[in-house]
Amino acid sequence: MKTSIYATLAAVAFALPAMAQDMGDAANGEKEFRKCKACHMIQSPDGTDVVKGGKVGPNLYGIVGRKAGSQEGFKYSDALVKLGEAGEVWTTEDLAGYITDPNKYVEEKVGDPSLKTKMTFKMAKNQADVVAFLAQHSPDAGAASAGDAAEKPATN
Ligand code: HEC
Fold first, then answer.
1. How does DSSP classify residue 130?
2. 24 CA to middle of ligand 1, Å?
């Protein structure tokens, strides 16, 4: 009996870091967010700055689980408005795809190549990390990604 318990524990010990890696490293994502903050802040509804940033792009607080193009007071491009109308509610996976190439992402989802987003930035690597960081500051992350995100937002 003992050996099987140890075998299980060993398997879990190996599996956990691998899973964490797949889902992104939020601590590294916080550093990577430096690339975003020229244009984006993360500010909670009570006015607390998680990350002070620019206003070129919308506030990214709560972005996981939020409808695309729906931050009140921000003037989005038609591309982001159409994306929201097409039913996009940001999941961690979708966000990673979007920040890799915003225009291509919208074109694939909405099916209109003439739509151009106002985001002129593409992220070539560590997308999952930055998304894991965003998920940490998204109270609705659990609803968007199946699983126990509400309990452990950092890993989603
Ligand atoms: C040069 C400025 C700039 C940078 C850098 C930038 N963004 Fe953006 N971002 C924008 C703008 C502008 C929009 C609004 C797009 C539109 O309306 O077409 C946007 C939109 C978004 C959206 C959609 C928000 C919503 O409410 O639907 C997400 C998510 C996003 N950006 C994430 C990021 C992340 C993560 C990074 C860093 C990896 C980043 N952006 C870097 C300017 C930027």
1. H
2. 19
